[in-house]
């Protein structure tokens, strides 16, 4: 269509009114919202807590796309063996109610510095046969040390929680190769000159010398002595059904401690 033809159709003063084909309006009371509850950082003002460098800082802004940018900076001084735990919440619901609902969760937020010894665990003992296959037996009670296994001999005694002189041990498989120990990157490709430096990338997703489609599999076996007490089992294979008389033979997850033991605050709260 030419400009002359358009001018013949639209005269000076004409109005063009457009209406949506589908009514997309959502009443205010039906709109949904997402709320992030980060707390009020009361722990910073507790004079018994010497692990803060400065108050916690929250920053937020807008982006050119359909999302918001925010970050919570907890400025701490952490030493070797310490862990920081922070409990925050995300809730969603009706826009008209979300502010009131969020306020009910503010007092449920918590921050704490965890030291080795804050958790009470239980003994975990490796029972191998010929250093080729092993099982793990757990003490029946938290704080307990007695374990039983239907076969094998006591070789490596650890704990379900971090303790001094212990490291996290992993069972790693790459194809038909196995490893047991604290080196999470045992099967990762080496640096070209075989002398890793702080700048060297760690390709933890790859198995050195194997096809790129082969991926390593990790399993946290809990915490065991940092010395060579467990070294004889470095290539042993874990069998979850090995200790038939173990309290939890098929999984180690039942013996893990939870953050709730230290913070002593329930994780869930019902909103009426």
Structure in words:
With 272 residues, the protein is mainly beta. The chain folds into 2 domains: 87 residues, no CATH class; 134 residues, no CATH class. The chain is 7% helix and 28% strand. It has 3 helices and 13 strands, in the order H-E-E-E-E-E-H-E-E-E-E-E-E-E-E-H. The strands form 5 sheets. It has a 4-stranded mixed β-sheet with strand order 9-7-8-13, with no helix packed on it. It has a 3-stranded antiparallel β-sheet with strand order 11-10-12, with no helix packed on it. A two-stranded antiparallel sheet has the order 1-5. Strand 7 and strand 8 form a beta hairpin. The longest helix is centred in the middle third of the chain and has 9 residues. It is elongated, with a radius of gyration of 29 Å. The C terminus is likely disordered.
Helices and strands in order, then pairings?
Elements: H1 3-9, E1 32-37, E2 57-62, E3 68-73, E4 83-87, E5 89-94, H2 95-103, E6 110-114, E7 123-129, E8 133-138, E9 156-159, E10 166-174, E11 177-181, E12 217-225, E13 237-238, H3 260-263
Parallel strand pairs: 8-13
Antiparallel strand pairs: 1-5, 2-3, 4-6, 7-8, 7-9, 10-11, 10-12
């Amino acid at each position: 269509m030419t400009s002359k033809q358009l001018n013949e159709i639209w005269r000076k003063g004409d109005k063009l009114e457009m209406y949506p084909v589908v009514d997309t309006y959502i009443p205010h009371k039906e709109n949904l919202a997402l709320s992030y509850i980060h707390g009020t950082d009361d722990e910073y003002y507790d004079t018994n807590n010497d692990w803060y460098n400065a108050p916690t800082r929250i920053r937020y802004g807008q982006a050119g796309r359909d999302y918001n940018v925010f970050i919570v900076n907890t400025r701490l001084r952490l030493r070797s063996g310490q862990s920081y735990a922070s409990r925050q919440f995300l809730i969603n619901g009706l826009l008209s109610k979300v502010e009131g609902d969020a306020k009910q969760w503010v007092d449920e937020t918590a921050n704490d510095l965890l030291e080795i010894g804050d958790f009470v665990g239980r003994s975990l003992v490796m029972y191998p046969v010929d250093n080729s296959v092993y099982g793990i037996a757990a003490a029946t009670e938290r704080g307990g040390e007695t374990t039983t296994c239907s076969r094998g001999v006591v070789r490596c005694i650890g704990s379900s929680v971090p303790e001094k002189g212990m490291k996290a041990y992993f069972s790693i498989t790459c194809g038909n190769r196995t490893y047991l120990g604290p080196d999470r990157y045992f099967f990762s490709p080496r640096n070209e000159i075989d002398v890793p430096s702080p700048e060297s990338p760690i390709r933890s997703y790859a198995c050195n010398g194997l096809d790129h489609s082969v991926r390593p599999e990790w399993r946290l076996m809990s915490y065991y002595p940092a010395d060579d007490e467990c070294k004889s089992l470095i290539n042993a294979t874990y069998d979850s059904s090995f200790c038939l008389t173990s309290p939890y033979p098929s999984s180690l997850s039942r013996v893990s401690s939870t953050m709730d033991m230290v913070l002593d605050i329930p994780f869930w709260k019902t909103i009426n």
